[in-house]
Amino acid sequence: MSGTLVLVRHGQSDWNLKNLFTGWKDPDLTELGIQEANAGGAALAEYGIKFDVAYTSALVRAQNTLKLILDKVGQPDLETIRDQALNERDYGDLSGLNKDDARAKWGEEQVHIWRRSYDVPPPGGESLRDTGARVWPYYLTEILPRVLRGEKVLVAAHGNSLRSLVMVLDKLSKEGVLALNLATGVPMVYKLNADSTVASKEVLGDMSGAH
């Protein structure tokens, strides 16, 4: 058995609360987001895991989620690597817009396509496939080798950067990944085989029962 990979989506951000497209913009966590990150950290502490390294994005909402989790697991000084390869999908011209305003401007159907298609990017932004095109190489060259050496690796990132990773790990189709919604602050614990396939997956503190 090789190592363990833990993925956590950041807690609620200020712009999530305001129903704004966020992308590469950099709002911080809300009070609820802080609670979600602390709850995720508490679940990992109860699970009893100690990490060898952590990865996060260049955005403060993911970095602060990671910091809160590391405090909870008693590893505040853990080696942490930040890289924009793990950033949220870039929403381009939609960034900073209220989702209802975007629908009023471009139409319900068009905004739905941008949000929920696999390979249609919003103007000036990235599709989910584009996001995966930067997340996957980073995972394969930087993160996966450490897991395969037997290390325990924590990744705190974003809904779409993590969806593109889960798509590969869980062998989801393009249609399957579109239906995937990741809960904020809920750790997903993957144990990997030596050939990098998934031996097991556990969702900690998952209230929906969906694994």
Summarize the SSE layout with pairings.
Layout: E1 4-9, H1 14-17, H2 31-47, E2 53-56, H3 60-72, E3 80-82, H4 99-106, H5 108-116, H6 128-148, E4 152-157, H7 159-169, H8 174-178, E5 188-192, E6 198-203
Parallel strand pairs: 1-4, 2-3, 2-4
Antiparallel strand pairs: 1-5, 5-6
Helix pairs in contact: 2-3, 4-5, 6-7
Order of helices and strands: EHHEHEHHHEHHEE
Side by side, the strands of the main sheet go: 3-2-4-1-5-6
Tell me the helix content: 40-55%
> What can be said about the biggest beta sheet?
6 strands, mixed
Mean pLDDT: 94
The CATH superfamily turns out to be Phosphoglycerate mutase-like
How many strand segments?
6
CATH topology: Rossmann fold
So what's the overall shape? globular
- CA-to-CA gap between the ends? 22 Å
Class of secondary structure makeup: alpha/beta
Which CATH architecture? 3-Layer(aba) Sandwich
CATH class label: Alpha Beta
Weakly predicted, low-confidence segments: none
Radius of gyration: 17 Å
Number of helices: 8
Keywords summarizing the entry:
14% strand, single chain, 211 residues, Rossmann fold, globular, alpha/beta
Architecture overview:
- The protein has a single domain, classed as Phosphoglycerate mutase-like (Rossmann fold, 3-Layer(aba) Sandwich), CATH 3.40.50.1240.
- The radius of gyration is 17 Å and the shape is globular.
- The chain is built from 8 helices and 6 strands.
- The protein is 42% helix and 14% strand.
- The longest helix is centred in the middle third of the chain and has 21 residues.
- It is α/β, with parallel strands linked by helices and 211 residues long.
- β5 and β6 form a beta hairpin.
- The model has no long low-confidence stretch (mean pLDDT 94).
- A 6-stranded mixed β-sheet has the order 3-2-4-1-5-6.
- α2 crosses α3.
- The two termini are 22 Å apart.
- One of its GO terms (molecular function) is phosphoglycerate mutase activity.
- One of its GO terms (biological process) is glycolytic process.
